[in-house]
Amino acid sequence: CPLDSTNPLQSPKPASTSPPQTCQKSQLRLSTPTTGFTPWTHRPTCTTVSPKGDELCVFTDATYFSGRGLSIVARPEVVDKFLQEGIFPGRQNRPNAKEKGDVKYQILPHPKMGTGLFVKPGKSYQAGEVILTDYPTLILPAEGFEGADADVLHEIMWQGLLQLPKEGRNATRNLAKSKEANGVDEIVDLVDTNAFTHEEGGGIFNVLYPLASRMNHACVPNAITRTNGTTLALEVIALAPIPSGAQIFNSYLDPSSFSSSAERAHALRATWSFSCGCDICSGKGVSASDARRREIKKTRAQLENSKGNPEEILRWSKALLTLMGEEGMVIPRGEYFELAAMASRYLGLNGEAKGWAKKAKKHWDVVLGEASEQSKAMGELERAL
Ligand SMILES: C[S@@+](CC[C@H](N)C(=O)[O-])C[C@H]1O[C@@H](n2cnc3c(N)ncnc32)[C@H](O)[C@@H]1O
Q1: Residue 278 alpha carbon, nearest atom of ligand 1
Q2: How far is the CA of 86 from the centre of ligand 1 (A)?
Q3: ipTM
């Protein structure tokens, strides 16, 4: 068989020498021969994963990122859409020596977190600065398939991983695993522990990025990630100034949900098998943070009940911005800067509105980038006032 899912170390035979009819267990089969596999370096291999006939195929480009390779496991129609819309990552090359020499981050071991991403001594980042850009090695389906056979799903995901050239395969397999002790299939563990979710071309994907996946979690993160919808490159961006030697963190949880310390502890343990040791999870700040988060939720409900009254909208938006500032939360603030700008403008408070619009623009510049619609709209509003 091309691949034994119970023996992940078994490399797949070249596709052309793996006739599917001789397989006892594997359901992998070659796609219909085409005149070429462009842009793929292997002929796509497909399998039916559910009784309804959902089909997944593996598309590999072994030349991607100067030979590190990329495999995409997806519905063939979704990948066709990628290609038609120019969404395929393309033949990215790795940074050259000069670009590499400029990097200000490093991967270091941490006594409680495995390894993590840190600012090099003597270097720092400003808010909005791109810390690094990473490219995927493996793109896997994140959607569920009704009645799917887990073994069949895992087998095609393994095919994608093992079809990568050695460098990409090792970089991916060396990523952290957090569920080994529970006997979870290694490919599932790699995804659960490291993947970034991305929606594109009508599909939802789990994407593995060998460098960005080294970032540890903080409930009050100092960095954010952004996926480029065309190249599928992932950028890590500083949310605030990050000083020399500091660790760079993103949040694994939705920062806009303002979950309590107990809810966060449960989610982090269930998916990533760790207990967060930060001040607002188990340190001296827990009770103050939990109280503030309850207040934030209450204030958001009051804002939702404002029924379009601009005075109420301004009042509750300002209250939320103060509470979020006290909590150290940057990411969810954008919409409240915007609401404060609109409401004060409506009330004829043009000077105040201009100040909020400026803050909103600065916020979106950092979080979504200067080219984002939100940043442009707030820039226009600021100029108009
Ligand atoms: C995406 S990986 C992050 C990189 C990982 N530390 C490594 O060595 O490659 C996620 C895993 O890192 C560890 N981790 C992340 N954030 C942590 C934190 N705040 N405290 C403790 N462990 C953490 C957990 O083991 C988690 O399952």
Answers
A1: 19
A2: 34
A3: 0.99
